[in-house]
């Protein structure tokens, strides 16, 4: 479904991604784990068109996407839930969700997707007329995910969905990620909580200072002593 071949991304003179290659198959949950500053968010921003790679290729369903504008990438079926939620604080929950469907013209489908999002996140339905800036961190995370789903993505990029949330809410968010995946949406998950991420993912990649240093089945990486020591708090 998605193939990334040897991409190099720079911030000015800083070489942020160094020849990164990975692939994601239809229907999978793939997680990308690594320390802060390893290049995880940079990779997601490059996939969604917010950053342009200096070299390498990004193929989504055999179509070249590297360097394309973000709205075109959304149109092709990739939605990005950014780190830090980034909801439009002065707009209501409902207006934020409407913006997620900005590129769509199918009114009936949009109505159906509103229903689906409210079923997935009942709290958003209760708060639908409320300004997004007044929501709790967990509710804002739900809204950011719901907004991305309104574009009907085939691939959902999630950047740190559990950041700053209470443990109970983290559990809820991860259950919802699994539910979204069960409806047929493929997911690339970037997550500091490596234990949780590996517990729901099919496969995983480990990134260190812009290089992919390990990859494999999530369950195997979760058992690896080296990975446990570095990322899972094991000894």
UniProtKB/TrEMBL annotation:
Protein name, UniProt field: ABC transporter ATP-binding protein
Residue ranges constituting the ABC transporter domain according to the UniProt record: 2-234
Any matching Pfam family: ABC_tran
Similarity-based family: Belongs to the ABC transporter superfamily.
MF terms (GO), sorted A to Z: ATP binding; ATP hydrolysis activity; branched-chain amino acid transmembrane transporter activity
Keywords: Amino-acid transport, ATP-binding, Nucleotide-binding, Transport
GO annotation terms (biological process): L-amino acid transport
Keyword flag Ribosomal protein: no
């Amino acid at each position: 479904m998605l193939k990334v071949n040897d991409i190099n991304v720079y911030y000015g003179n800083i070489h942020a991604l160094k020849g990164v290659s990975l692939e994601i198959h239809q229907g999978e949950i793939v997680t990308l784990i690594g320390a802060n500053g390893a290049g995880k968010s940079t990779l997601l921003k490059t996939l969604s068109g917010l950053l342009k790679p200096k070299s390498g290729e990004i193929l989504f369903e055999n179509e070249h996407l590297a360097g394309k504008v973000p709205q075109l990438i959304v149109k092709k079926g990739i939605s990005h839930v950014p780190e830090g939620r980034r909801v439009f604080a002065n707009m209501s929950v409902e207006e934020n969700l409407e913006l997620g469907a900005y590129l769509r013209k199918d009114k009936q489908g949009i109505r159906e997707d509103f229903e689906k999002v409210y079923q997935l996140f009942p709290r958003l339905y209760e708060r639908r007329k409320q300004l997004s800036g007044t929501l709790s961190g967990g509710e804002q995370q739900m809204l950011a995910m719901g907004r991305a789903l309104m574009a009907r993505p085939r691939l959902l990029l999630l950047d740190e969905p559990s950041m700053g949330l209470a443990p109970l809410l983290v559990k809820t968010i991860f259950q919802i990620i699994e539910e979204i995946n069960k409806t047929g949406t493929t997911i690339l998950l970037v997550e500091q909580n490596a234990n949780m991420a590996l517990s729901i993912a099919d496969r995983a990649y480990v990134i260190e200072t812009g290089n992919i240093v390990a990859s494999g089945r999530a369950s195997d990486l979760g058992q690896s002593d080296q990975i446990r020591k570095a990322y899972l708090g094991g000894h």
